[in-house]
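@channel sequence for tomorrow's demo:
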Amino acid sequence: MVHDLLFSEQGIPPKKPVIIAICGKSATGKDTLASWLISMSKVNNIPVNMIVSDTTRPPRIFEEEGVDYNFLTETEFHNKINNDNYLEYSCFNGWFYGTDKTAILQDSINVGVFNLDGISSLAAYQDKFEIVCVYLRCGLIQRLIRSYEREHKFKIEYVRRAHADYCDFKNIKNILRRFPNQFIFDSQRIPIVSMVDHIIWRLKMKNLLPSI
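C-alpha cells (generated this afternoon):
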C-alpha cells in the first residue's frame, strides 16, 4: 500500500505522515483556516499539501473542481470504494465524501477539512498517521451571517444545516478525546492568524514538522 511505513537503511522508521484534520459545524471557518495554514506553511518553507476530498455532492456556486472537491458521480465513488481507494469515506445528508489514499503525502503537512464521520474514521488510523484534530466552534447567529455573506442570499438550507449540526455534534467531546493531538478554537473570538501560529508552533514543539 502507498502509506505502509518502511524502515530506513539505518533501521529507523521515518516520521509518520501528518494530517491536520479540521472539523466543525457549517460556516465556522474551516476552509478559511485550511487556506491560511497552507499559505503560512509555504511562507515558513514548510512542505504542505492540501487534501482535496471526493464527493458526490453537486458543487456550490463558489466551488471549483479539483480545488474544493473532486466532484464524482455515485457510480464513480462506489467504484473507488470497491477498489479500496479510500482512507475514509462517509455519507452525510445523502451525499458521499471520501479521502483518497493517494491524497496523503509522506513528506508534507497534509491539511484537510473533514465532516464528523470522516473525523471519527480517521481516529482508527493513528498508528499510521500523526493526526492533529482541529475543532472550530462558533455561535449560531454568526454562522448564519457568514452563510448569508458567502452566497449573498438567505436560504432555508442554512437553517436545515444548523439543525443537522446541532444533532450531529452532540457527541463531539467523546470524538475529540480519541485524538491526543487536538486543538479547539472559537473562530468568532480568535483571529485565524493566531490559530495558524499556534498550530505551527505546537507541531514544531512536538517535532512533527517534515524535514525541509
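heads up for whoever presents: The radius of gyration is 17 Å.
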